[in-house]
Design a protein that fits this description.
Helix content is about 60%, strand content about 5%. The protein is mainly alpha-helical. It folds into three domains: about 350 residues, no CATH class; about 80 residues, no CATH class; about 80 residues. Helix 8 runs antiparallel to helix 9. The chain is globular and about 85 Å long. The chain starts with 7 loop residues before the first helix and ends in an 8-residue tail after the last strand.
């Protein structure tokens, strides 16, 4: 393959085009639903409080009450806080930066797969993997939220891509180091796992060295290992310096993000979030459509090519990512986010085979049947027979699957490629329709909207205490613009405002009309008894 400078723009065109397309699909209507608890409420609150600090104090994360925030480093909080200071506190502003960073995972995955085998087949698989990752509902939905997980995936891909590229040019290791810095400023313990994956795959490569295809052995093995490590350390320096600074100022408390909020999730259940390995497996089975049908073909391809770099890395990334997620005793649905890049790589191999050979033939057939079923469900929703599904989103997905599946069953390769285009367009329109419908953050249906009560609290004098009776709602404090106290066993003795779904004695409900059971009450001071 010719690697002169004239081909370099063409090499960047495909990942750049996919990235722009990802921006178009992922970013619309970020602000049409309120922030979700706990994750988004905490991230937004910490970002605002941290960005309001002056001098070097902004380097240390704070809670809304001015207390140290020790759970996570403030890497993403700095960016969100800057956005808030510049454009305001709207939901779209809070989510914009995390969503933008999350979209980088798509071009990074394309470049990573291209690095595994720099030939025409590798290019085709890279584009297929990018399309899969771009249109996965969980990847897009969680990437749109003000959370750390989408950015963590992008940083992990940057780490792996940079290390792979450093085999050809040592300076690529700087990219790996910058990815490591990103991980250190998001979820530091994850860097141990991501590095272990690289070590594991490298050891397997050494064991299979006689079988590995080496297109450019002189470039891949003549670069001194120490030089690559040097560039790696250079890129990792900002993250390491911050942790040293954090440790200097906060002492042993700085270890909380490594232990209590990090490694302890492997050995114990934190805040009752349990479920074991079934939680991420269920998330994958529910959210991997329509591409999950291609996973068996991708696994078969990777196993057949396990002694080649592409197959070895794809299997290694899947096994390594699963080893980081499945053993966790503390499980939350978005922990499975780390699994999607490796799944997309393998599904991309299956999709590439389908485009070239038309096999496995049963996959387009199932897509066609699934599309017909979705069209029926969407038509029923459109006619008002059922409101269980968003009609426009389901109709778009059904049309894409039906037409795409029919065309991809064709014996001619060009028709199969057009079928893929129809499927991707239909599924992308379904995602956009879902964002527009405001149903994309369905967890909000499980609790009450904090914004009406928060709007009332914002008008109260700053010195008036506001107490919440019930589960903590970080988003309520965010919208109210002040920290809220949790009600202990007894109500405070001083005059205070109480948020509760009960009817407290001697308190007066505010006359504002607020939907739902939760209301704001004004409670007088309790007179002190004298004997």
């Amino acid at each position: 393959m010719n690697h002169n400078g004239s081909e370099r723009p063409r090499g960047l065109l495909a990942p750049l085009t996919l990235w722009i397309t990802t921006l178009v699909i992922w970013l619309p209507w970020l602000g049409n639903v309120p922030l979700r608890d706990w994750d988004e409420g905490i991230v937004a609150t910490v970002a605002r409080a941290t960005s309001q600090q002056t001098g070097l104090s902004w380097l240390l994360a704070l809670k809304d009450a001015g207390e140290p925030y020790l759970n996570k480093p403030p890497g993403l909080h700095w960016l969100i806080g800057t956005s808030i200071q510049t454009w305001g506190e709207g939901e779209g502003v809070v989510r914009a930066v995390p969503a933008l960073v999350s979209t980088l995972a798509v071009p990074l995955l394309v470049l990573l797969r291209r690095e595994l085998s720099r030939d025409q087949s590798g290019e085709r698989s890279a584009l297929a993997a990018g399309l899969v990752l771009m249109t996965l509902l969980p990847m897009a939905r969680h990437g749109r939220l003000a959370m750390l997980d989408g950015s963590l995936v992008s940083c992990s891909l940057m780490l792996w891509l940079g290390w792979l590229g450093s085999r050809r040019q040592s300076r690529w290791a700087v990219l790996a180091g910058l990815g490591g810095t990103g991980v250190l400023l998001l979820k530091p313990p994850a860097l141990i796992g991501f590095t272990a994956i690289i070590v594991m795959i490298t050891v397997l490569e050494k064991l299979s060295q006689q079988h590995l295809s080496q297109s450019k052995p002189s470039q891949q093995h003549n670069i001194p290992f120490r030089r690559r490590i040097g560039w790696l350390v250079l890129g990792t320096t900002p993250g390491l310096v911050w942790h040293l600074w954090h440790g200097w100022w906060r002492g042993l408390d700085a270890l909380v993000m490594w232990g209590g909020q990090g490694l302890s999730r492997v050995t114990s259940v934190v805040e009752g979030n349990q479920g074991g390995w079934l939680v991420p497996i269920t998330e994958v089975l529910e959210g991997g459509w329509p591409w999950l049908l291609l996973l068996p073909a991708g696994l078969r391809w990777a196993w057949h090519h396990r002694h080649e770099r592409a197959g070895l890395w794809e299997l290694g990334l899947l096994v390594g990512s699963a080893a980081l997620v499945l053993p966790l005793r503390t499980q939350l649905p978005w922990y499975s986010h780390l699994l999607w890049p490796s799944i997309a790589l393998l599904c991309g191999e299956g999709l590439s085979q389908l485009l070239v050979s038309g096999k496995p033939r049963w996959v387009p057939s199932i897509w066609t049947g699934l599309g017909a079923g979705l069209l029926l469900a969407g038509s029923m929703a459109l006619l008002g027979i059922t409101d269980a599904v968003p009609a426009a989103s389901v109709l778009s997905a059904g049309a894409g699957l039906l037409m795409g599946g029919l065309w991809m069953r064709a014996p001619i390769k060009t028709r199969r490629c057009r079928g893929l285009l129809l499927l991707v367009v239909g599924w992308s329109m379904a995602l956009l329709s879902l964002w527009h419908s405001r149903l994309w953050l369905w967890e909000l249906n499980e609790t009450w909207d904090p914004r009406p009560i928060a709007a009332v609290i914002r008008k109260l004098p700053a010195e008036d205490p506001v107490v919440l009776q019930g589960p903590t709602r970080p988003s309520l404090g965010w919208y109210a613009g002040r920290p809220l106290r949790r009600l202990q066993s007894e109500r405070p003795a001083e005059r205070h405002w109480l948020i509760t779904r009960k009817s407290p004695a001697s308190c007066r409900q505010q006359p504002m009309t607020i939907n739902g059971d939760w209301q704001l009450w004004l409670c007088p001071a309790v007179p002190t008894s004298t004997q």
